Amino acid sequence: MVPFFxxxxxxxxxxxxxxxxxxxxxxHGIFRWxxxxxxxxxxxxxxxxRTPGLYRARRLRDGSLALILANQNGTVFVAADGRLLWRVDxxxxxxxxxxxxxxxxxxxxxxxxLATGLARIEWPSAFSLFDRAQRVARHAWSxxxxxxxxxxxxxxxxxxxxxxxAETGNARFELVMKGRTVALLxxxxxxxxxxxxxxxxxxxxxxxxxxxEPAKSVFALLRSQRDPDRVWLGSADDVRSMxxxxxxxxxxGPIAGVPTGTRTLAETADGAAVDRELDGWRRIASAGARxxxxxxxxxxx
Length: 301
Hints:
Strand order of the largest sheet: 1-2-3-4
Shape: elongated
Structural class: mainly beta
Low-confidence stretches: none
Number of domains: 2
Number of strands: 27
CATH superfamily of the largest domain: YVTN repeat-like/Quinoprotein amine dehydrogenase
Number of helices: 2
CATH class of the largest domain: Mainly Beta
Distance between the termini: 78 Å
Largest sheet: 4 strands, antiparallel
């Protein structure tokens, strides 16, 4: 008997396209056997493959692996290079964590053989759903990517997306700051956020720091491309701007001649600010000017 098979309890044995074999063991992970040589396939979930251990492994059509864990611990999916992709169990929507096998179908889906019956999932899926099951607030106001991190503003507060890891589970949103967060703006010195409790704050390594208490409730932020130290602010009653001066921000006040506020701002190529009306756009400030009469910039077609 080959010593490998004498020393390891095998729970999976599949032939690979190149003529080798994928071998899954109950306590020592996954191996490839080709030309008489055994090579360990290391993954980000190797610790799970030792404890609780592995019940069955399947190579899927896209090259990823479905690793069914022992002792009712669900299934983990890893990429061909060993990266954790997803862990599926009763916490991620299945009626049970007890899985016995998986099988792909001709439409690209994946059938799961459960202790309670059959279930089908799209794998790999083009979408990820984060809802109340993942403790994410329902009402979304804003979103932005800052320094490679995705942020999400809700009625309950500001969340950030934490990538999935073998030690902590699937990707999830964690609360960064409480309070309704209606607008976000990436900034080299820290993400800028508009909240209903603390005004406009900037997040740095020490946490949120108030940079401005606007006179009106702000719903939109837009950095000027012509003047990066200026940020346009759209509120329910006016359009104004704030400007960075050294380490602080200064409220430059409302733009004269704008009769109403806005929730949508944009900037033209010449640096003028425009906002959205029901029947088009209006030009509300020219480049370099702080007080200009509004003019119609276009209509909706």
